[in-house]
Amino acid sequence: MYCPVCGEKLALCVHDQEGLVPFCKHCEQFRFPQFATAVSMVVTNRSKDKILLAKHIGQDDFILFAGYVKKGETAEKTVTREFREETKLNVVKYKYMSSRYHEPHNVLMLNFLVIAENGEISLDKNELESAVWFDFDKALQAVRKDSDAEAFLKNAINELKKQ
Length: 163
Ligand SMILES: [Zn+2]
Known about the structure:
Elements: E1 11-15, E2 19-24, E3 29-30, E4 36-44, E5 51-56, E6 65-68, H1 75-87, E7 91-102, E8 107-116, E9 128-134, H2 136-142, H3 148-162
The site of zinc ion (ZN) has 7 residues, from loops.
C-alpha cells in the first residue's frame, strides 16, 4: 500500500479510535483504505412474485442488476438511474437491504430490493444480452453458487415471503 498523495510506502500505525490504520510518515497523515461503492438490485414486479435477472454478453450465469455510485451521487439515486439506463423501466419503490464488500473489485456493494414498473424491457445491448423474469426458486438456481448475488437474493426472497 502506498500513499495516494506522495507515493511513500504506508505503514500500519495505531489510530486513537480506529485501531491499526495505514499511515504515511512523509505526509504524517493516516490514509484510510479507499474503495468503490456500487448498488446491487434484487428487482421484483408489482405483484412481488417474480425476480428479474440479467445476463452479460458472453456469460453463463445470471446476475443482479448493478452499477457504480458516481462521485457526488447518493446510492438511492444510483438505483433509479442505473435501472432506467439498463432497462428503460422506472423504479416504483426501493428498500435498502444489506451490504457486502467484494474483494476482487475492491467495491462495497449496497443491496436494494427494488419494485419495477410493469412494462416492456428495452435492454442496453452494449452491456446486457438478456433479462428474464424468474420464479423465486428458479432465480436462485440461475445465479452463481456462493456468490454475493446468491446471498442478496436469498435475503430478499425471505423478505418478500414475509409480506
Ligand atoms: Zn504521503
